[in-house]
Fold this protein.
Amino acid sequence: MSQDLTDRNLLREKLKEYFGFTSFKGNQEEVILNLLSGRDTFVLMPTGGGKSLCYQLPALMMDGVAIVISPLIALMKNQVDAMRTFSDNSGIAHFLNSSLSRAAVQQVRDEVLAGKTKLLYFAPESLTKEDNIAFLRKIKISFYAIDEAHCISEWGHDFRPEYRRIRPIINDIGQAPLITLTATATPKVQMDIQKNLGMTDAVVFKSSFNRPNLYYELRPKNDPDRDIIRYIKQNEGKSGIIYCLSRKKVEELAELLVANNIKARAYHAGMDAQTRADNQDAFLMEEVDVIVATIAFGMGIDKPDVRFVIHYDIPKSLEGYYQETGRAGRDGGEGHCLTFYNYKDIQKLEKFMQGKPVAEQEIGKLLLLETESYAESAMCRRKTLLHYFGEEYNEEGCGACDNCCNPRPLLDATQDLVKALQALRAIGDKFKMEHLVSLLVGKVTAAIKSYGHAKLEWFGIGKSKGDRYWSAVVRQGLIMGLIDKNIENYGLISINEKGEAYIAKPTKVMVAQDRDYDEEEREAVAAIPKGGGVADEQLFVMLKDLRRKVAQKHDLPPFVIFQDPSLQDMAIQYPITIEEMQNISGVGVGKANKFGKEFVELIKAYVEENDIIRPQDMVVKSVANKAGNKIFIIQSIDRQMDFEDIARAKDLSFDELLSEIEAIVNSGTKLNIQYYLSDYMDEDKIEDIYLYFKEDSDSDSLDDALEELGDEYTEEEIRLVRIKFLCEVGN
């Protein structure tokens, strides 16, 4: 236990030193500890969840060089640039790919052999080259990291055949622990990745795929050009991506936006490489606000402050939709995911599949069916998306999607769901959802005819309500867990025990009334939750301008210098020395020393000109006034005095004493109050409150904790355990 604590404390020290963060997000800490212990690790973590840190931090801490396999040159370059900002050693990270000259390749190899490099990035194609394999055999490899691992399964032989050859190449180079990371993988894709890499025994870390800062909205596709221009004008200056299915539409829409004085560029695979690269760089460097693109754009983009992602056309799969919308709000700030939908687009996509191999057509149809269900559904968008990735979301409403904020009229489908489940039970587990719906509406397909299902009592019982309604009913059964979907035989559905129980004792189920998007009046724009405000908006704007100038000087994207949350923290804390800058969220020692000087000079001048009293100044004054109390309390707790005795000695109420202790802890002093907690509280209560702050809470709010934990916990108990938690985790 003590060794585990030592390892965790060291990890947090290194996290602060290198990256400027005081705590890990989600599963990051457990992932890194697992990798440091030499075990294979499989990481499923949403975009913005901090996947890169899971291999960057251990690479800096371990002996040898971490080999990172990444699909796109742009992504490698961004990550290498970012890593170099955290260190004075420019050789800390390198990439080897086709963009380098022979001399540049030799320079990289020399620095690796000299022991300067901790991360070495490869495209899978470069990794297969014999001279690279021979070179890697000469060096000590700390571990292998495979980023964007879904490429192994999602595209397979079509997109990245080399991704499916990674395991034999690793075996050829030499054994070391393997960490694979992806932001999107259904259970089927996960299984395929693990089998292909021979890592079925890996420890799997699956973070929640919920992105609470994203707002999901679908609008009818009546006049999308006008809607998009209006939306961008209302969100002037914000970064956004617009996805279109065709290259022609990308170019037309980009021209239309420019004609309407919107700073936009186009991006698609049909453009020459230089134009594509220039347009992408213009977006990263904040020279343009909007990029209009096909799905060729995005995987290599590490831009954290994209504020909106618009889908001009409905995507081909929910997996693609999740990946693309996930590029919004990666820094935890505002992210609006707006999609335009017309049922004709679904039919168009189905036509595109004609002529493809039958197996590919089948999978494509099923993926489209999922997308169509998502678009048509009146259920919480978040709930539907998370269910697709095998995750339950039990909240009544997310409060951040159009279906929760602007609900559609609903129909009682309880008895129809019972009928659908009974029909499914009758036909068994050899059929897909499409077949069940055809049976219910009385559609005579080849499969219905050959299996004799037209003779069943269920044939045509739901004819009057149409196949889209019944698709919604069956989809509801899937989401409620009454119907199983076979992972191995993609798309086959069957009733389960829970479904049988539902037939015996149904509960009320509502589905949305069918609506014709073509004729529907355009809805008013939904109120979209914005990211947290900045304490000093004027300073924040000045810091952003300075960041842009510093970025141009160093030829780096602005977000590589400091991300928006760091600038927001500066506009709250007003750091005026390099030491204070190191305490800003996301600013480590390396970044503070490398870029901090101009920022602290600007802030210092701003503070003096505007006579601003900084939070630090207030803390110093209040501590000075109560220095006697503070020292006495710290010494008394060190001697393990009873809290009531400490309060009496200084003529304080118990509430006042807790406020004093909270102030001491918040200023960075670590106290051990476990001796008092053990006497005062039940151990189970301590653990429940501690786990709430560690795993469930987004803040240290006492009101939120009281509401979440319930009446059996008193305010004093929560405050005491919060003090313990802040001492152990925060200080």
In short: Confidence is low (pLDDT under 50) at residues 155-159, 514-533, 619-626. Residues 231 and 525 are 9 Å apart (CA to CA). DSSP finds 37 helices and 18 strands in the chain.
